[in-house]
Specification:
This protein is α+β, with helices and mostly antiparallel strands and 300 residues long. It has three domains: 2-89, Rossmann fold, CATH 3.40.50.20; 96-112 and 182-263, D-amino Acid Aminotransferase, Chain A, domain 1, CATH 3.30.470; 117-179, Dna Ligase, domain 1 (2-Layer Sandwich), CATH 3.30.1490. The protein has helices at 13-24, 70-82, 91-98, 100-109, 126-132, 157-169, 227-240, 268-274, 278-298, and strands at residues 2-6, 28-32, 37-42, 45-50, 53-54, 60-63, 86-87, 117-118, 138-142, 151-154, 174-178, 186-193, 196-204, 219-222, 244-252, 255-262. Helix 1 (13-24) crosses helix 9. The longest helix has 21 residues, at 278-298. The two termini are 22 Å apart.
Amino acid sequence: MNIIILSRNAALYSTQSLYKAATDRGHFVRVLDHMYCDLRIRKGQLEVYYEDEVIEGYDVVIPRIGNTATSYGSAVVRQFQSMGVFSTLDHEALLRTRDKLSALQLLASAGIGIPDTLISNNSYTIPELLERLDSMPLIIKMLSGTHGIGVLKADNASTAENLIETFHKLKQRVLLQEFIAESNGADIRVFIIDGEIVGVMQRQARPGEFRSNLHRGGHSFVVKLTEGEEAVVKKAAQIMGLSVCGVDMLRSNKGPLILEVNASPGLEGIETTTNIDIASKIVQYTERNAKLHKKQFAER
């Protein structure tokens, strides 16, 4: 097959891992920066250009779209999908998961456990909101944050009010969420491909830190999920419409709580922790589906 990896940086671990996995399996692979893809749209014909070259004859696109490139990145993925190229990430699912508020609404309405969450567009209702989250500390999250950036803990109502007011003055919308003390600074990342769990790791925050992100000095190790937890994370991926994703989960006294479903999860942490070649499993997923997808697209 001919495969495109959409990535802003060909040297990134995830991009390199996917490139190696695909070439080792005999595929032709090209890495393109989606922000430098030009799109031509006209009646009955869609084209992608890269450095003034028409990009055609490809079977698969594997998008690695970061948060800052979500809007244009999804447009590039949509263009390839509209041209009949099989994508490991649907453009609508990308937009759905990147909208943190909408994602939580979808998960909660489907009966998936999430941390108790509040959001308001009015700063004057802050005291009432804090009363509804009747426990301290609480977590304050920027809707646009990633890798633990823009995630703060407020130990009391006064600190929470000051932080929220500051975010509102900066025109940054935030979520208020209950703090799950019993998780002890740990969360679980579950990697799912085509509805199946292929890797699980627990991420543990460093001492004095509540955010478990590996980017912030946390460490990770392999853990086993219960049957109930497996069912919840698979359902979360299905609800968000993602065939390849990372589901972040907390263990709580109320059962498993989903923090986020990541449409473009990094491979370095999960591969180095589990010693599982996740990239090869992604490539094998494309091998199983690309030919059928091409046939179905041609029959439309």
